[in-house]
Amino acid sequence: MVGIVSYGTYIPQYRIRLSDIAAAWKKDGQDVTSSLLVTEKSVQAPDEDAVTIALEAARSALSGVEGLSPQSIEALFVGSESHPYAVNPTSTIVGELLGVGNNYLAADFEFACKAGTAGMQAIAGLVGSGHMRYGMAVGADTAQSKPHDVLEYTSAAAGAAFLMGKGDEDQNKSGRKKIDPQGTTKPIVAKLLAYTSYSSDTPDFWRRDGVAYPSHAGRFTGEPAYFAHVIGAARRLFEKVQCKPSDIDYCVFHMPNGRFPRDAAKRLGFTPDQILPSLVVDTIGNPYSASTMMGLAAVLDIAKPGEKIFMVSYGSGAGSDGFVWETTEALVKSQKSKVKSQSLVQQQIAKKTYIDYVQYLKQTHKI
Amino acid sequence: MNVSIIGASTTKFGELWSVSPRTLAHEAMDGALKDAAMKPRDIQALFVGNMLSGMLGGQEHLGAFFAEELGFTHAAAFKVEGACASGGLAIHNAFNAIASGQYETVAVLGVEKMTDHKPEDVATALMGAGTAQERSSGCTFPGLYAILARIHMQEYGTTQEDLAAVAVKNHFHASLNPNAQFRSLLTIEQVLRSHAVADPLKLLDCSPISDGAAALILSRKKVNGKREKEIEIVASAVATDTLGLAQRESLTELAASQEAARRAYAIAGVGPRDIDIAEVHDCFTIAEILALEDIGFYRKGMAARAISRGEVTLGKAKKLVVNPSGGLKGCGHPIGATGVKQVVELVTQLRGVAGARQVKGARVGLAHNVGGSGATAVAHILKS
Most CB within 10 Å of its CB: which of A231, B23, B78, B357? Predict the structure, then answer.
């Protein structure tokens, strides 16, 4: 069965409080925070971009697997809406620096905030079909937003990488003994029970080539966009795995703000406790392609073996990718190693340095 | 010459993302034609109330556009624009077209599609109803009405709770209206706790951005077997004032509303005390308070408390019920459709078929539609 072999995340250490952004525009910080349910967001350092952030996350994911050569990775997909180059792939730069070698499929994905999970589905297909053993999907962004646009309060920077492969279970079943170059088969920490996708031509948020900041259609980004697709994918996923919210331990949704995922969870019948561990948005904002993947990582950081995780991303334009995961015993070891290396999502969230609005403008190269 | 409404219909109002203006127009007009037992070929002229089709959709020439769409082949057709009073003005023109003897049967369509556009584009387009000075100073309509609210508070001791009471009442009425945008009840506290938009106006003091259409069929012909459904327009009056607030002598009243109402009462031979139901222009909560005073239901400074006490609330009112549809605040405010919807609501009430929100024994109704910050006001009085 296809699953997650390891995962890694990276959150730049800089934070700006939403109340500081609000103050710059003479807005009521309390109003902004209570409306978005976000208190602060992560900001990249002046020398960080989607490439460096993707690389940090990918390195962290790879370091979580003992004895697996980077060259075992046969596909590397990086999803972002802030790829530094319009033409020249992020994935090959990351692959080169990661030491993946040359025998791999590299591709950049773009699908607003779901480019990373689109990569995960592509890897799931390639690995699941037996085409390859290991593939890595990364979601990384230094999210753009125009000063004074409502997006400015939430657009954040972070990355998440998932190394996916086939678990031991499948090899035993098939009787074949496929081995990676090191001669070991790595256990998976979460099995992928089912996945689905839901797409339509819904232009709720876009950025034309050469334009610095995205545009969005205000409230149109809600009901006909985010909710229609997230709920659409979620319902298909429930049908596919023949389960209901009470059969699930945790749910994860894309987090453009704190309100939408909570609302989606409620509408689908999940309890606040089921969604709470995933809500990284409250303290780091929305790192676009990394948002849902970061939520999944935060849940994997605390889940027990044998628990089910229901996850639906959302990308404007528009589409949602849905996954149901079931954690395994191997997750415990992964969690212990992350605690030791200070790489749990919550540990990364806690490691922070506040900057003011002027510094924020500098670090995001607006001034 | 008697001009009667023989067909009336409205679409649901709200954020109708999947519905086009053509579909909205069809739904409203097909309903009105069916109500009047008429076919498109019976319509001699079409009056379209709309404000933003040009600025937001790039589509002008709406008379021919909708005449073609609705199958009113070769009918005379006009777009009538007067900001938020476009719908009321369209009815006024339709009324005059019949009263002049030129036509026997005409249709009125009020339609607006606002949610396909970016909020900042909508806000910019709406400021087309103001003056160049207001635009260049950065004012928006919430800001202009906030000025009116602030002055009313200073002059008459009107409070934010009084403003909130208008929203609470209109949401209650809207909760009984299946076509309303908001069917949820509000509390004073919820309104007061909502975000500030333009002090002292909170988010829940403001009418929403909406899509919707409403249609009427007006005729002087007697329709066989349909007499009981006819509602007569006994007065149709329009008045204007300075386009901008800065040029007004007084900011505690909208003189255009006063003048339009005065003219309508004179034409109809009735007074404020004769009115059983009124659909007034509550684009912001302060606007309903101003309207109730300007139309003559209350003396200046008295309306706010009266609304707070429930004097014009369905089920509590002794006589006059204000905004039984939910008003612009509760039912929604698709600009060009609003003035037409107000009259559709009066027709529904005067026919006694308003269901859960029926005002018992309603015989005389008044519709009050305002454009801009009070530069245009339209008053219609209808009798069953």
Answer: B357
